[in-house]
Amino acid sequence: MTETAATLKLIPLVPNVALPRTASARTRTSIPPGYGVQEQCLPFTAASALGVIIPSPIRFGFCTLDALPNGCRAFRSPANKPDTAGNYAEPRVFYVFDNPEVRFAGNAYELRGVSGQDSAASVQEPGLSFFDRDDQSGVIKLHLPYIWRTPEMVDTLFLPLLNRAGPGLEVKCGLVETDWYASPVNLALGLPPGPVHIGIGDPVAQAIFIPRALRRPHLESLAEHDQLNLEARRDLADWDKRHAEDRSLYKVLARSAVGRIEREVSSRPGENR
Questions:
Q1: How many CB atoms lie within 10 A of CB 215?
Q2: What contacts 148, CB < 8 A, 6 or more positions away?
Q3: For residues 122 and 112, is the Cβ–Cβ distance under 8 A?
Q4: From the CB of residue 56, how many other CB atoms can be counted at a distance below 10 Å?
């Protein structure tokens, strides 16, 4: 069966913004030689290649005052208030860098042509924002200044990076109905115990696409006398025999080409058939 790629449409709300890019099966620049490296595992590389990688649209971070980079704008969460002695429970501060190329200044994007009352007016969209509950003080929102549009009945699942090292922020998973959702998505990010510094374009999250009909599948356990149960047992016996003869059998039989890393990880002839 031929694989047909669906189209994800992105509507930038500011110019020159770093947009999501198709995820790659490769998760490191060089692959060690020899049999058994992770790149030989097609389930691993296929997962790495799912969906798109979401880069940070801004340069930002979270650190102590003495570690702030030159030229940034520093600020504290509104919930981090000083005590009577002027001390803060959280000594670290947030920072962002202005970037006129994407109309970003003072921790806000200028979105033009999206005002409901006056198409010539602009509105402000935060770069970073905060939750207003004390039990969410350790989570921030990174706003993505573009709109997602997936095919009808396809949702977007926002996840941590798959099989890749992230920048140190804990990505909170979220499922959005992006076939109609009219607002920019924001990523909820848990803060680490130490400092974090993120540059424009640094990968922060991954997004994969879920047909809505597959959200809540029906589950069925088959009895031993069921025909499919019998066939599955025969297939398992055949698999064990063939897999003992060829450790790359899954790669030989897999029906999708997505996620394959060919030849450079081979340690014996024919391994990457």
A1: 10
A2: 8, 9, 10, 156, 176, 178, 181, 185
A3: yes
A4: 21
- Residue 124: how many other CB atoms lie within 10 Å: 11
pLDDT in tens, 125-151: 999 999 988 788 899 999 999 999 999
201-216 pLDDT, tens per residue?
A: 999 999 999 999 999 9
Are the CB atoms for 60 and 54 separated by under 8 Å?
Answer: no
What is the rounded CA–CA span in Å between residue 104 and residue 126? Answer: 9
Residues 45-82 have pLDDT tens digits of 999 999 999 999 999 999 999 999 999 999 999 988 88
Task: Tell me the fold of 9-18+56-214.
Answer: Deoxyuridine 5'-Triphosphate Nucleotidohydrolase; Chain A (2.70.40)
Q: Which two tokens stand for residue 67?
A: 């570690």
CA Rg, the chain, in Å? 24
What are the φ and ψ backbone dihedral angles of 73, each rounded to 5 degrees? -110, 120
The chain-wide mean pLDDT, for the chain, equals: 91
> What is the CA angle 108-110-116, rounded to 5?
120
- C-alpha to C-alpha distance for 52 and 166, rounded to whole angstroms: 14
Instruction: Please state whether beta strands 21-22 and 52-55 pair in parallel, antiparallel, or not at all (unpaired).
Output: antiparallel
The pTM of this model reads 0.89
Can you name the residues that pair with 211 across neighbouring β-strands? 154
Helix (H, G, I), strand (E, B) or coil at 235: helix
Beta bridge partners of 121: none
